[in-house]
């Protein structure tokens, strides 16, 4: 059974999680070994563990409790039955405290990875590095040492700094590279295919690819410019100016002028589109140039249709090419940083905390998830996930096989969260 509990801060979510835990173990005491409860902070973990032991102790002493009232009603138990069951449970949990699986997401993932170091080719005595910023700064220092010997890297860094200065941001090269490097620890970067990322380390490939992207943008601009110049040549041959046309700078003829001036970013307005279909969009009733405009209007409408067709077909490719070309240098720098981060971690026998989710994601893909979790010494039937709104896509993909298996076996899954507080919005 899936139970989704939407709870904002201070609304009693710890109470709800603890109550669900009690419902399971009061009906079947040995099931405490098969419950996995995860949250995001050590503080929340300890709070839930202590709440469970404390409330069980109160129930064992026969003290008044909100949990006791609910459990007596739902499980049809007398006060004495509830007290005796709580006494047995508190003794059982205290004597097997290490089997209570209430933990943070990162610690849970680490436990699984520890069981598969040989299969993953990871040094068994690795240490988890919590301070990814420290490792990043070490990598930045290494990259900076390569600038004089690496012309392409030097060019990329120059482009990065030019962009930073234009945006009024930091002038510090090291600070800017470190700021860019934080992307390495975000899931958007981790989700890139490793084969694709390896391409970004090939500086010749990046140069060729950038030339290719620039050629897409240049072809688009040239085609529109050619059409616009033909239209303007015709307009000028009749001694007309933009103000002679209906709407002036806001009219349908204005787009030709914008394109001729190199303004390719502004999409055609509704008025421009109207000019390709309606003759009335070109001439005002009081215009002194009615006859001249009417004489060239068919040509102008055809050229406008041609320009609109180019826009509809190629504009999305043009924008993509410009965006990619303008940011390609960042991918090159990121790849160099990534290589240095990996080299430092390998040298020191470290695993970054941010790598944990990704490694487990790769381990789960194509494998029997039940086997993976059983090898850790636990077989989880019931799941509780706290602060679910802060669960990332990769973290959820790691949990999903467990959730699917639990629901398939008619066990309990409880998800608690508040979408308004999500850090992944």
Textual characterization of the structure:
This protein is α/β, with parallel strands linked by helices and 425 residues long. The chain is built from 18 helices and seven strands. The protein has helices at 13-27, 42-60, 66-75, 79-95, 105-114, 117-120, 132-145, 151-166, 173-181, 187-190, 194-199, 203-237, 254-260, 270-275, 290-348, 353-364, 369-374, 393-408; strands at residues 2-6, 35-39, 101-104, 127-129, 350-352, 382-385, 413-417. The protein has a five-stranded parallel β-sheet, sandwiched between helices. Strands 4-5 form a two-stranded parallel sheet. The radius of gyration is 32 Å and the shape is elongated.
Summarize the helices and strands and which ones pair or pack.
Layout: E1 2-6, H1 13-27, E2 35-39, H2 42-60, H3 66-75, H4 79-95, E3 101-104, H5 105-114, H6 117-120, E4 127-129, H7 132-145, H8 151-166, H9 173-181, H10 187-190, H11 194-199, H12 203-237, H13 254-260, H14 270-275, H15 290-348, E5 350-352, H16 353-364, H17 369-374, E6 382-385, H18 393-408, E7 413-417
Parallel strand pairs: 1-7, 2-3, 2-6, 4-5, 6-7
Helix pairs in contact: 1-2, 2-4, 5-16, 7-9, 7-15, 8-15, 12-13, 12-15, 16-18
Quick tags:
single chain, 425 residues, alpha/beta, five-stranded parallel β-sheet, two-stranded parallel ribbon, 18 helices, 62% helix
Q: In which range does the helix fraction lie?
A: 55-70%
Q: Please indicate the percent range of residues in DSSP E strands (runs of 2 or more).
A: 5-15%
- Give the helix/strand class: alpha/beta
Low-confidence stretches: none
- Beta strand count: 7
- Written as H for each helix and E for each strand, in order along the chain, the element string is EHEHHHEHHEHHHHHHHHHEHHEHE
N-end to C-end Cα span:
27 Å
Order of the strands making up the biggest sheet: 1-7-6-2-3
- Shape summary: elongated
Q: Summarize model confidence as the mean pLDDT.
A: 84
Characterize the largest beta sheet: strand count, sense, and whether it forms a barrel.
5 strands, parallel
| Radius of gyration, whole Å | 32 Å
* Number of helical elements: 18
């Amino acid at each position: 059974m899936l139970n989704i509990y939407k709870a904002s801060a201070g609304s009693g979510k710890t109470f709800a999680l603890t109550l669900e835990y009690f419902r399971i173990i009061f009906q079947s005491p040995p099931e405490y070994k098969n419950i996995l409860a995860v949250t995001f902070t050590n503080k929340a973990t300890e709070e839930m563990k202590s709440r469970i032991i404390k409330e069980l102790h109160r129930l064992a002493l026969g003290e008044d409790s909100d949990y006791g009232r609910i459990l007596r009603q739902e499980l049809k138990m007398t006060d004495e039955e509830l007290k005796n069951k709580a006494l047995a449970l508190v003794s059982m949990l205290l004597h097997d405290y290490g089997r209570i699986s209430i933990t943070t997401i990162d610690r849970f993932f680490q436990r699984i990875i520890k069981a598969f170091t040989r299969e993953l080719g990871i040094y068994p005595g690795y240490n988890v590095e919590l301070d990814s910023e420290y490792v990043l700064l070490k990598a930045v220092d290494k990259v900076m040492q390569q600038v004089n010997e690496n012309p392409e890297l030097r060019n990329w860094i120059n482009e990065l700094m030019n962009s930073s200065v234009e945006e009024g941001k930091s002038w510090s090269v090291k600070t800017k590279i470190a700021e860019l490097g934080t992307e390495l620890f975000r899931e958007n970067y981790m989700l890139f295919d490793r084969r694709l990322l390896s391409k970004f380390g090939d500086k010749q490939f990046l140069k060729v690819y950038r030339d290719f992207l620039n050629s897409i943008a240049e072809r688009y601009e040239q085609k529109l410019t050619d059409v616009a110049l033909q239209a303007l040549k015709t307009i000028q041959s009749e001694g007309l100016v933009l103000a002679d046309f209906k709407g002036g700078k806001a009219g349908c003829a204005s787009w030709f002028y914008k394109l001729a001036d190199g303004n390719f970013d502004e999409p055609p307005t509704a008025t421009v589109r109207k000019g390709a279909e309606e003759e009335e969009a070109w001439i005002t009733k009081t215009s002194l140039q009615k006859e001249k405009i009417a004489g060239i209007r068919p040509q102008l409408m055809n050229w406008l249709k041609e320009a609109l067709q180019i826009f509809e077909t190629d504009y999305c490719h043009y924008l993509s090419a410009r965006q990619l070309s303008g940011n390609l240098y960042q991918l090159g720098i990121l790849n160099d940083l990534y290589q240095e981060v990996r080299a430092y971690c390998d040298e020191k026998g470290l695993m970054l905390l941010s790598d944990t989710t990704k490694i487990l994601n790769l381990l789960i893909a194509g494998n029997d998830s039940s086997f993976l979790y059983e090898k850790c010494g636990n077989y989880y039937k019931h799941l509780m996930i706290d602060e679910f709104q802060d669960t990332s896509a990769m973290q959820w993909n790691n949990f999903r096989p467990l959730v699917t298996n639990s629901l398939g076996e008619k066990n309990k899954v409880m998800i608690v969260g508040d979408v308004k507080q999500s850090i992944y919005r």
